[in-house]
Amino acid sequence: MNRKLKIILLSILLLIFFPFATAMSCVNLKFFTESCALDLDHLDPYKPPRDAILSSRWTSQNTLNIEGYVKEVRDGATLTGSYQIKGDELLLRYKVDLGEVVTTSRCTHKVVYNISGLEYKNYSISIKRLDAKKTQNP
Prior knowledge:
This protein has 138 residues and is mainly beta. Helices cover 14% and strands 46% of the residues. It is built from two helices and seven strands. The longest helix has 15 residues, at 3-17. The relative contact order is 0.25. The model is unreliable at 13-26 and 134-138 (pLDDT under 50).
């Protein structure tokens, strides 16, 4: 059998047995924060819960927009976001880098996770802080 025919047959077999291999798109995250969000100032930053999901909606067939909040130090902290998918669970994660923060004053920060390339389904969504180490001076 010539080489071209082998490649074609192998491609057909892959499409039959692994259709998701060609249908998968690159999953992408855009993470935004709004420090001390004025529309969330009714939430006491010193009372639980420390973080929560406010809303989630599909903006297109494969893009999910999720808004939430986290209660952290007021000034100088940097928040970064990530996520993990486990079956029907969408686990939103965030890290707080305190850098050289000297205040312990807290406020409520709005966080927005805009995730594209997701399989369209009804996810169970949670948010949780990941441990971050404080930056030390050299």
